[in-house]
Amino acid sequence: MVTDSFTIPTRWWHRLDDGRVQCDVCPRACKLRDGQRGVCFVRARDGDGVVLTTWGRSSGFCVDPIEKKPLNHFLPGSPVLSFGTAGCNLACRFCQNWDISKSKEIDTLADEATPDAIAEAAADLGCASVAFTYNDPTIFLEYAGDVADACHERGLRTVAVTAGYICAGPRAELFSRIDAANVDLKGFTEEFYRHTCGAELGAVLETLEWLHTETSVWLELTTLLIPGMNDSDAELDALTGWVVEHLGPDVPLHFTGFHPDYRLLDRPATPPATLARARRIARANGARHVYTGNVFDPEGQSTYCPGCGATVIERVGYEIHGYALDQDGACLACGTTIPGVFDGGPGGWGSRRVPVRLQPRPQSRDRR
Ligand code: SF4
Question: What is the pTM (predicted TM-score) of this model?
Answer without folding.
Answer: 0.94
